[in-house]
Amino acid sequence: xxxxxxxxxxxxxxxxxxLDYLQHTASTVRGTSRKIALASVGLGAYIVDGVLxxxxxxxxxxxxxxxxxxxxxxxxxRRFGDFEEHAVSEMRKLQDQVDDNVDHLRGGLMxxxxxxxxxxxxxxxxxxxxxxxxxxxxxxxxxxxxxxLNRKLDQQLRRLPDRPIPDPLG
Length: 170
Known about the structure:
Strand content: under 5%
Oligomer: single chain
Distance between the termini: 197 Å
Low-confidence stretches: none
């Protein structure tokens, strides 16, 4: 294929048109560079605002956590105090019950012991009686009679003169 060279009619650049083009380009560059500068400043402002928001949010979070910790400590202290009072009350009730039970058992044991002692004493007396030996009461009476006789004998001996008594045997 054969291409014919077409010549385009391009007007020759003029000094005025070049100046207009330069002014237009400078104005576009100025506008674009101003936009870039404004965008950079705006981006920096967004970053600073974000950092401040994160910082303020952190402060609010720490403050909120501190208030929540104070409430929890106060509630835990109150609950522990209530629990302690309840535990002390229950321990006192339990101690009173134990004391009552011990007193009851002590009384029962004393009754059982005296009853067992009486039963044992009766059985021993029965065995001694079956063997023909005197009972405790009989022995106590005999011992009292012997003591009385010894006292009377001592009185009689005191009335005797201080001289030696002759021996009738020799």
